[in-house]
Automatic annotation (TrEMBL):
InterPro entries found in the cross-reference section: GAF (IPR003018), GAF-like_dom_sf (IPR029016)
Top-level taxon in the UniProt lineage: Bacteria
GO molecular function terms listed in the Swiss-Prot or TrEMBL record: kinase activity
Pfam family, one: GAF_2
Protein name per the record: Histidine kinase
Keywords: Kinase, Transferase
Domain GAF: 20-143
Length: 151
């Protein structure tokens, strides 16, 4: 399965006005987890009101304790302040990392912008070492751009 081939379905899910925006985001999490072998946990975090912290809005995969993540903490909290994609080929090599499950080997976090402002992010964990390529970054940037249009 090529990531490129998933784009029409991503757009279709996100533009379905019959369901709430949170439900559409939830469907995206499940769609990506179910259709990309190396995506084992997929979630969307957003800035929590005017606080300098992220709040988990929806996800697919194992339940996590990390519903709230302060800016600067972990991979997610670092992306909240850097505004840059963060690809972690091997989580064991990271000092500032918040472990969610012992199965997780790698992670990618891509920020989500609305009108140029970093308002959240898509976070993906993988049970495989070093699976995330440039194609994943470009694809997840596309997903976030499509999400941004409906927010
Ligand atoms: N590993 C993340 C925390 C979120 S979980 O992956 C769901 C981090 O270091 O920010």
């Amino acid at each position: 399965m090529q990531l490129e081939d998933l784009k029409p379905d991503v757009t279709g899910i996100l533009t379905n006005e019959d369901v709430s925006i949170t439900e559409r985001l939830n469907q995206i999490c499940h769609f990506l987890k179910d259709n990309v072998d190396h995506y084992d946990w997929v979630g969307f975090y957003f800035k929590n009101g005017d606080k300098d912290e992220l709040k988990l809005r929806t996800y697919a995969g194992l339940e996590t304790d990390h519903v709230i993540i302060p800016f600067g903490k972990g991979i997610c909290g670092q992306v909240a302040v850097s505004n840059e994609n963060f690809v972690v080929p091997d989580v064991k090599a990271q000092d500032n990392y918040i472990a969610c499950s012992i199965n997780v080997k790698s992670e990618i976090v891509v920020p989500l912008f609305k009108n140029g402002e970093n308002i959240g992010q898509i976070d993906i964990d993988s049970d495989t070492i070093d699976p995330f390529k440039k194609e994943d970054e470009r694809f997840l940037e596309f997903v976030n751009q499509e999400v941004s249009k409906i927010l």
